[in-house]
Amino acid sequence: MHLRSVRRTLITTTALGLALASAPAVAQPRTAVSTNAPVKVVLTVQGPDGRLFKGRIKTKGHEVTTATGGTHACDGTNGGAHPSAVPTPTAALDDAARKRHFTWDGTWYASFDDYTVDTIKNVDGGGVAYWNISVNGTSIPVGGCQFKLNAGDKVAFTWTAF
After folding, report:
1. Cα–Cα dist 60/42, whole Å
2. Which class is 39-161 in CATH?
3. Cα–Cα distances in Å, from 160 out to 103, 139, 145?
4. N or C: which end of the chain has fewer CB within 10 A?
């Protein structure tokens, strides 16, 4: 009788061990990884008569305040573009303006959850041009508060005639 009891215990323990080993792991809650670490980018502002600014800027997504548009998030969460804050082109422009003491202004469009850049260093489109935003030589397909920047990106705001 004792041998039978040992066998049952051994078989039960082995079966339980195999069942636990083959069971899917229980999902642990993920901790959100911040993607809004500051990055260094090269920012260029090209006006109709030449370069208005060029420099390396350390930036991350943050609230932006303009005279025309007010204060709004400009951190990649705009329009649901990213689930957490990220560095953006318009935030980089804002950081450059504050650090290098020049002005810019933009209109906030709630329907797009983003700014348009209207004026940089007192240069505006005047109805015949706009400020195009490109990253690494390609115009961005979304607003400047929605596009994620990576370290080393080349960001350009270029006065572009219609």
Report:
1. 13
2. mainly beta
3. 19, 12, 19
4. N
